[in-house]
Amino acid sequence: MLSTDTNIYIDVQPTQNSRIDTLDENNIPFGRVFSDHMFIADYKNGAWTDFKIVPYGNLSLSPAASTLHYSQTIFEGMKAFYNTKDEIVLFRPEENYERLMRSCERMCIPTMDKEIFMQGLKKLIDIDRKWVPKVEGSSLYIRPFIFASEGFLGVRPAEEYKFIIFTCPVGAYYTQPVRVKIEREFVRAASGGVGNAKTGGNYAAALYPAKLAQEQGYHQLIWTDAKEHKFIEESGTMNIMFVIDGKIVTPPAGDTILKGITRKSLVVLAKDLGYEVEERPITVDEVMEAIKNESLTEAFGVGTAAVISQIAAIGLDGTDYELPAVETRKISNHLLKELKALRSAEIEDRFGWMEKV
């Protein structure tokens, strides 16, 4: 293992044709404009090696690459952005590293030293720092991912992998309150499966039921447990929280629920602000009863993109239940305001969550 003060050698091959002049910070389509460079590392002969930063571009792969057939692939999502001190900062990047390594273990992908992840990440952002937009609310979206690159059709863990980080500027994420449907037919994840790994197959499996829900007028789904469809698990691709009787209630992270970094942070922040938080199983029946007796005052998804995505209505068995207006939601609005202020350096980073590039 590398020591914490070990610097890895990264071969930097700067682009000769920067596209930064084409960036319109006031009009950035999500996920379609990519920065100039990407970080690449290869796993071969039992070790991660060949660390380099090269111009962003297409890859050359064998048609027999294991990831194309057996979905040995994992990823992370994170952001870099300017704070009010004109510094480029990251929000809890070591948590992304730790979660990526947990995904590695579940998907039989070799883990890597933290220095490879952190130094490659920071070097890449520093080289492409002009791509971090300064328009309020905008950021540089960061996508680290690992996939099996070995050209072999045998069903076993691959022996060769690629680790890549690329980035793309994104505009301010404005989200309207969403209408969601409680899903009780299709399954996102089963106990003992890969629900707590951030692997591509989880998202592919969710596309069809989400499409059906959208055709019925919903924006997303609330997933329930695979065995009985009794317990609430996640909302779309986000963790979910409810405010019932003035308490924040959220399902506990486990082998079917992704350990969200935003979720984890909001639990800590909420307790610090004096709110009561219960991390416990919550049933569909409990949510429905709380809506009907008006003790459920807030429901929202939490994740990297919007931080908090308010839920306007919950559908169950063909009936939609409208929730209280967003402007009346004191707890979630307070949490969002506080977390944004902490991330932007408007208030003290009392938890040590922010890391400067």
Describe this structure in words.
The protein folds into 2 domains: 11-170, D-amino Acid Aminotransferase, Chain A, domain 1, CATH 3.30.470; 178-343, D-amino Acid Aminotransferase, subunit A, domain 2 (D-amino Acid Aminotransferase, Chain A, domain 2), CATH 3.20.10. 24% of the residues lie in helices and 29% in strands. The protein contains 7 helices and 18 strands. The chain has helices spanning 66-70, 93-106, 114-127, 200-215, 261-272, 284-292, 330-343; strands spanning 11-12, 37-44, 47-55, 73-75, 78-82, 88-91, 139-148, 161-170, 178-182, 220-224, 232-235, 239-244, 247-250, 277-279, 296-303, 307-316, 319-322, 354-356. The strands form 2 sheets. Strands 1, 2, 3, 4, 5, 6, 7, 8 and 18 form a 9-stranded mixed β-sheet that branches. Strands 9, 10, 11, 12, 13, 14, 15, 16 and 17 form a 9-stranded mixed β-sheet that branches.
